[in-house]
Amino acid sequence: MDCSREIEGKSVHDPYCNWPNNKIQRSQRCVWIPGPVIVGAGPSGLAVAACLKEKGLPSLVLERSNCIASLWQLKTYNRLRLHLPKQFCELPLMSFPLEFPTYPTKQQFIHYLESYAKRFDIRPVFNQTVLCAEYDQNLGFWRVRAAGLKDEECEYVCRRLIVATGENAAEVVPQIEGMEEFGGTIMHTSKYKSGEVFEGKKILVVGCGNSGMEVCLDLCNNNASPSLVVRDTVHILPQEMLGRSTFGLSMWLLKWLPIRLVDRFLLVLSWLILGDTGRYGLNRPRVGPLELKNLSGKTPVLDVGTLAKIKSGDITVFQSIKRFRRQSVEFVDGKSENFDAIVLATGYKSSVPSWLKEREMFSEKDGLPKRPFPNGWKGECGLYAVGFTKRGLLGASMDAKNIAQDIETCWKADAKHFSATFNKLM
Asked: From CA 193, how far away is CA 184, in angstroms rounded?
């Protein structure tokens, strides 16, 4: 349905309208969407769309890229596997194939997501970059303005908006003195695919999270000479303990023990299996790994072989960078070293504040819901968030189920209200 004339007439006198010239541009299409608009076709967006579809509720998924799960398909390195066992990474209503390994590869996970979209007939509108989304108090609807490949704009009007762009929508690139002077390549891990192109070269990886550690291992396996910048304290845990995944063991223990006791248990086992990581420049935080995850969202590193390379000297650990120079990097401890390239494993951040014109549900500082888990999925005026729990795919699945249940309840209430109103008119 084309509703641009009706909205244009109302928006002329609308004090809340921030569009150019305070009205809809003539060249901009306006489309009414009867169900929720979901922004983002990653795992979170697919999960909530599937949960809605299972309840018989329609939705429209908008995606800025040309494929689903664009972060996984376009911005991850080739050797990537799920860090957690597959049973903790399943989306609602569909399990992984039985023949998949415990830790599926990148390509296997993408295949799973594509099969998931096909099974629930989820058809995102691709190449739609959301420029602005704002709740129109006068109309009582959300107005979502998006631009296509040729900068053709379309405004989607809906009663409910689901933000599914996630915690990893935009790369974090630190500004370090002298970066513009450095003569080699500087890239974010979103551009890194394989260490093959760096064979025989000295590479500095900045950041010691799971990505930074795995990139270093990949570089080693491709005959490069990697070094690792450890800017902060970090918890390194074995991927498996006592024959079980560390994550699965932790979840089981948390059913019976307080989090601090579980943390102590994990740290004792880690020390027995990995030794004292502090001897190699990898000092642990004072707060335990699970408690730190709850407090700050910082994920412990699950070691897949990088620590052995650090112990053997194949990977050198450096402290924070002081500044870049033409051919070298100077560190805060006064050391200086030449490198051919820099890989920034500095993570991602939410991009929500750049396009969502709302200040109650999402924080402008970090783009995450202000209300802590598990209550950050619902806002006011039909606004929802999925995939911002800092608990991975498990948290996204919980959000998706809650959102679908809430919208179903609202949908039935709306239908009942409409029916009563219609009967009165008749």
From this structure: 18
Please state, in angstroms and rounded to a whole number, the distance separating the CA atoms of residues 204 and 113: 33
**In the chain, where does the domain assigned CATH 3.50.50.60 lie?**
4-169+349-425, 173-347
Cα 230 to Cα 172, 174, 186, 422: the distances in Å are: 16, 14, 17, 65
Protein fold of 173-347: FAD/NAD(P)-binding domain (3.50.50)
Residue with tokens 């990697």: 226
Task: Name the fold adopted by 4-169+349-425.
Answer: FAD/NAD(P)-binding domain (3.50.50)
Tens digits of per-residue pLDDT, 35-92? 999 999 999 999 999 999 999 999 999 999 999 999 999 999 999 999 999 999 999 9
pTM for this model (two decimals): 0.89
Per DSSP, helices labelled H in 275-391 are: 289-296, 306-312
Q: Is the dihedral of CA 208, 213, 219, 223 positive or negative?
A: positive
Residue 34 CB neighbour total at 10 angstroms: 12
